[in-house]
């Protein structure tokens, strides 16, 4: 009988480095999250798993156990912390099939990194071309952008709390980039010359 592989998080070994961050900044890799790419054409259902699909570009809405992120006019990313990826895909596919919609499990594609604290926005601004001012990117906003040179989906969860969805293969690069970008925030602003 073949041995089952144990799933490990790409940032499992980074916890010590993340503990050494300056005050006002926390970086936390989130446990694996089930993710399903949802496609719904015109005339399709307006909700998935009881949550209305966000129709305003670059927004996200909370679900019972995750988030529903607008990716395009007919595409959303559904995340779930309480349902296994295969079960989530099967459930959503069953729900969308009558209207011609599709659901594809993309859980292995990305991981989620939380960046929070009063200095989180400052670190993100260092390598992101999106205007992250709270007036332009308030909680509930999302953007498909680059952070450093990694393609990400960025979510504003609260004024000082962000989720970064990055491809698993870029997780190490992003962790290194975030640690480097946080260096300029190790000296309090009022102590700088």
From TrEMBL:
Any GO molecular function: sarcosine oxidase activity
Catalytic EC class: oxidoreductase
InterPro entries documented for this protein: SoxG, TrmE/GcvT-like
E.C. code: 1.5.3.1
Keywords for the protein's UniProt record, in alphabetical order: Oxidoreductase
Entries under Pfam families matching the protein: SoxG
SUPFAM superfamilies, sorted: Folate-binding domain
Name under which the protein is recorded: Sarcosine oxidase gamma subunit
Species whose genome carries this gene: Modestobacter italicus (strain DSM 44449 / CECT 9708 / BC 501)
Record lineage: Bacteria, Bacillati, Actinomycetota, Actinomycetes, Geodermatophilales
């Amino acid at each position: 009988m073949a041995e089952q592989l144990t799933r490990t998080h790409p940032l499992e070994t980074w916890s010590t480095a993340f503990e050494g961050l300056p005050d006002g900044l926390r970086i936390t890799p989130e446990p694996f999250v089930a993710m399903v790419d949802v496609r719904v054409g015109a005339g399709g259902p307006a909700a998935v798993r009881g949550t209305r699909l966000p129709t305003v570009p670059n927004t996200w809405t909370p679900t019972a156990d995750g988030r529903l992120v607008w990716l395009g006019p007919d595409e959303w990313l559904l995340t779930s912390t309480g349902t296994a990826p295969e079960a989530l895909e099967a459930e959503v596919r069953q729900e969308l099939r009558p209207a011609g919609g599709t659901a594809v499990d993309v859980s292995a594609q990305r991981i989620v990194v939380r960046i929070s604290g009063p200095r989180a926005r400052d670190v993100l601004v260092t390598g992101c071309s999106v205007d992250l001012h709270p007036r332009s990117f308030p909680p509930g906003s999302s953007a498909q952008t680059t952070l450093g040179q990694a393609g990400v989906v960025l979510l504003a969860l609260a004024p000082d709390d962000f989720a970064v969805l990055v491809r698993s293969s870029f997780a190490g690069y992003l962790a290194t980039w975030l640690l480097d970008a946080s260096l300029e925030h190790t000296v309090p602003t009022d102590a700088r010359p």
